[in-house]
Hints:
The complex is a heterodimer of chains A (191) and B (214). With 191 residues, chain A is mainly alpha-helical. Chain A has a domain at 58-183. Chain A has helices at residues 7-22, 29-36, 40-46, 50-74, 80-97, 99-107, 109-135, 146-162, 172-183. Chain B is mostly helical. Chain B folds into two domains: 1-53, Arc Repressor Mutant, subunit A; 63-193. Chain B is 70% helix and 0% strand. In chain B, helix 1 packs across helix 2 and helix 4 packs antiparallel against helix 5. The longest helix of chain B has 25 residues, at 56-80. The radius of gyration of chain B is 19 Å and the shape is elongated. The relative contact order of chain B is 0.11.
Amino acid sequence: xGVPPDPRSQILAATVTCIGRYGLAKTTLxxxxxxxxxxxxxxYRHFAGGRDQLIGEAITWEVGRFFTRLGAHVDDxxxxxxxxxxxxxxxxxxxxxxxxxQKVVETEPERLLPQLTVTGPLVLAVLRGYLxxxxxxxxxxxxxxxxxxxxxxxRNVLSFIVAQGHWDLTDPKAVRRLVRTQLLAGVLAEx
Amino acid sequence: MPSLPAASTAELEARILDAALVAVARWGVTxxxxxxxxxxxxxxxxxxxxTFPGGKDHLFAALGSxxxxxxxxxxxxxxxxxxxxxxxxxxGLVEAARFVAGHEALQYVLEHEPDVVLPxxxxxxxxxxxxxxxxFARPHLERFVGPDDAAWAAEWTGRMVLSYLFTPSPGVDLxxxxxxxxxxxxxxxxxxxxxxxxxxxxxxDPAVPALQGS
Lengths: 191, 214
């Protein structure tokens, strides 16, 4: 819509593109500068820590974008349970269809996963912060505190975004069962 | 190089793996060489290559597999001594958390060489671990729940152990039985005993991946 992205975001977006093209190990500052159509000096001005800082921040930025899209997707859900179900389905699909993520997981997991582990606590905090006010409107099981409920659900959501395990998260019926009979069984007074 | 009396293949294999465990706890996977392991095991490098023809990678894959299997077996017998699903799940959580916390080699790798161990815990890779846990747990939990719920309960336990390992909580220490028990009673148990539950039959066929040599 005509609003130009700020230079910092532009550089981060270019970095993600380059990671998809060349991989985490081989992406250079020159690649990123060329992709973002800025000078190397501009990249350095925004990321004084150089390549390592740039790569690390690009991963965090992309994770942030992922959760922004997730939030937007469930924004109009009619109730909490539906929001959780839609969120799991969308997040699973978004991970599967994220070509750059899939490529890097396949070819350079040893470089990507330590980075993602670093963002883990941050992501968990964001999810917790998102879920807590929503849970405030739900009837929790007696004796369960809001913060504890939000933390538990956030952990589970994150765990299922990483891997679906036994559950087919492309199947709305399976997700419904997972959310209603399992994840919320210990959380809501009447899931 | 000290030469010990001829050992059976199984004995030699165990001795080599024990030595590799010591080496990893000291120097990590990357820096450990086949020669280091040979020295610690008191055997020749050739013996190691005879036992693990794939060399270092093969040796460490076998080590990971052995450690995991040993953990599963020990946990299995402890679970067999419990008489409720709640106790069984608490044992699973506590044993898994203690296994990770008390395993010197694993701790070294997690701290200094996350690139070595994290790939097996990420995205689709971790599904293999969950499946292995499910397959292992089924016979031990079937006294309390159906086979599918048994596998799922084990997976869920694994998910929580990994969650608290990588994103610790100040208020929850899963090596502590009281904390684990609180988690089980509050969140896991209602899913298996709740009136509305029915069966949590997973819709994905839990085909067995060979963990061996992976």
